[in-house]
Amino acid sequence: MANGKPAANSRTRGDEFERRAEQFLLEQGLRLLERNYQCKLGEIDLIMSTGNTLIFVEVRYRKNSHFGGAAASVIPSKQQKLRRTAHSYMQSKGLNESRQSCRFDLVACEGSHVHWIPNAF
């Protein structure tokens, strides 16, 4: 809509599910490093770690699984954008990609269900 309310509602809902995902992952023993990391290449919802592994987390919400659901919404172009953004993060922290273990996880929220997919892509 012209007044921007649907986008604002969508962002508010997105924030809510990112907080739920963060809490869920903390309960699984992961450690939070950053929330909503942004650079000119894109945004990563959560950056977490376990042991020596960096975990770049994409959080997706869908009301239901119609049209493929939350997990299916992370299409190859989105995955590539996340990879480039993660590369930027690692460079900004002085981390060497060849020596730093990392992975991309997906937290797919559909309705009230939270599904964690480690090493999703």
Automatic annotation (TrEMBL):
Upper classification of the organism: Bacteria, Pseudomonadati, Pseudomonadota, Gammaproteobacteria, Aeromonadales
HAMAP family, sorted: UPF0102
GO molecular function: nucleic acid binding
Listed Pfam families: UPF0102
Organism: Oceanisphaera arctica
InterPro entries: Restrct_endonuc-II-like, tRNA_endonuc-like_dom_sf, UPF0102_YraN-like
Similarity field: Belongs to the UPF0102 family.
Highest taxon above the source species: Bacteria
Protein name: UPF0102 protein UN63_06280
